Protein 1
Amino acid sequence: MADVVVRDFKDRLDNNRLNEKGQTYPHEGLEVTEERKQELRDKGYTAHVADEANDKEDGEEPKEFPFHKGGGHYLLSNGESVKGKDEAIEAEEKLKAGE
């Protein structure tokens, strides 16, 4: 499972790409070792998010929506990302109602 960026940083192993607070790490297309993930956690740049309701195997979709991605961002069932839990719940209810 991906980690969440909790403090902005430039990744020296990814062409100094800026990773901003709230984004998932690693980004799509970047493969990193568990050691690298742990290094960034230890330095306070990322955090592992454990969410049993939405714990998924690689390639699977989350089981429940809205799915908390971290940093106050939520994924809706249509793939849209929304900031704020209440806003995400409201938007997901509208999707389910067909609005």
Note: Residues 85-97 form the longest helix (13 residues).
Protein 2
Amino acid sequence: MPSLTDNLMNSDIPAKLDQSSFASSSCIPMALACGFAGLAVGGLIIIVVVYKCKGEKAGLQKRIISLENELRNNREDKENTEQLVSTVLEQKRELENQRKQLQEQLDEVEKERERNKRALQTVEGEITQREMTFDKPEELLRQKENLLQAQWKLDQTKKSTERQLLNIDKLLDPIEFQIGRIKNRRRDVAIFIE
């Protein structure tokens, strides 16, 4: 049996094809039309890609402007917050100083009350002794009355001072809370700016 390669070599098919069969007059316009169509499609694709890139670029520029405005606002907020914090801290220091002074005043009033109480007890003891001897201790009674008035004034001063301390504590509580909130916000803004 003859091989396939032998059959091909002995066949009547010409080994070379005629060039005119590839470039016939009807194929050239078709090839040109396909080439132009490919160029047109490629051009349209390029135009669409460029248009999309420009649109994305414009969107990104708007986003950049928006972020810059937000950053500027955050910086302004940070500056305002810093001023607010310094003002509130100064008020807090003043209130704490007032509280300290009032506490010292209260301690002094307590000491004075104790001295007055001891003096009053001493005078009452002397009055009791003189009454037992049927002596009229008018001077001691006046001294007792003065000591009782002084005790009453000291009690009033103590109550007033304690009320003032309580009011200062009431003022300090929300200030402490606000300072904590401001510090947290300041930290958040600092993180955002970085």
Note: Helices lie at 4-10, 19-22, 27-132, 138-193.
